[in-house]
């Protein structure tokens, strides 16, 4: 059985840092997942935006999330496409337990490609690469209990 794996070194694109997104990448380096949240209404915001999509307040800050969720959708990819994950790899959107529609584009690792399914409970896992780049990937949540 082939397990989905992350690359051992990163040859893919590197995120451009700016004041809005840098705290996200900083949190990953500490193996914590933090996303922007509105301090006025509590709405989570991802991808990062400078004002709340719900109440338009610009009083937003990064706060930690559980790192637990479920697979919203995915694709098993059998070509490299310059991403340099070992083939096959699984591109997915994971919906976090914190909020309906709070979804992260990511990759699934730690299980066989044919085990991946929509609604599958997953949890965040981290991979550290050169130049301080850490990626947030997701693996099966063996404890389950994402509650979705
Ligand atoms: Zn708000």
SSE order and pairing:
Layout: H1 22-29, E1 34-38, E2 44-45, E3 60-64, E4 68-77, E5 89-96, E6 103-108, E7 121-128, E8 134-140
Antiparallel strand pairs: 1-2, 1-3, 4-5, 4-7, 5-6, 7-8
Bound molecules: zinc ion.
Notable traits:
148 residues; Rubrerythrin, domain 2; five-stranded antiparallel beta sheet; three-stranded antiparallel beta sheet; 5% helix; binds zinc ion
How would you describe this protein?
With about 150 residues, the chain is mainly beta. It is about 5% helix and about 35% strand. It contains 1 helix and 8 strands, in the order H-E-E-E-E-E-E-E-E. It has one helix spanning about 20-30; strands spanning about 35-40, 45, 60-65, 70-75, 90-95, 105-110, 120-130, 135-140. A 5-stranded antiparallel β-sheet has the order 6-5-4-7-8. The protein has a 3-stranded antiparallel β-sheet with strand order 2-1-3. Strand 7 and strand 8 form a beta hairpin. It is globular. The two termini are about 30 Å apart. The structure holds zinc ion. Zinc ion (ZN) binds near residues 40, 52, 54, 55 and 57. The site of zinc ion has 8 residues, from loops.
Shape annotation: globular
End-to-end CA span? 28 Å
What CATH first level of the largest domain would be assigned?
Mainly Beta
Rg calculated over all Cα atoms:
16 Å
In this entry the ligands are: zinc ion
Tell me what portion of residues adopts beta-strand conformation.
25-35%
SSE topology string: HEEEEEEEE
């Amino acid at each position: 059985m082939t397990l989905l794996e992350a690359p051992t070194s990163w040859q893919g694109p590197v995120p451009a840092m700016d004041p809005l997104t840098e705290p996200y990448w900083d949190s990953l380096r500490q193996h914590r997942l933090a996303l922007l949240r509105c301090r006025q209404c509590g709405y989570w915001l991802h991808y990062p935006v400078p004002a709340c999509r719900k109440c338009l307040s610009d009083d937003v800050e990064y706060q930690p999330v559980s790192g637990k969720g479920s697979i919203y959708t995915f694709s098993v990819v059998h070509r490299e496409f310059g991403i340099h994950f070992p083939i096959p790899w699984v591109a997915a959107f994971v919906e976090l337990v914190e909020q309906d529609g709070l979804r992260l584009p990511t990759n699934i690792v730690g299980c066989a490609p044919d085990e991946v399914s929509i609604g599958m409970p997953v949890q965040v896992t981290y991979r550290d690469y050169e130049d301080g780049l850490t990626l947030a990937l997701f693996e099966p949540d063996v404890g389950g209990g994402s509650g979705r």
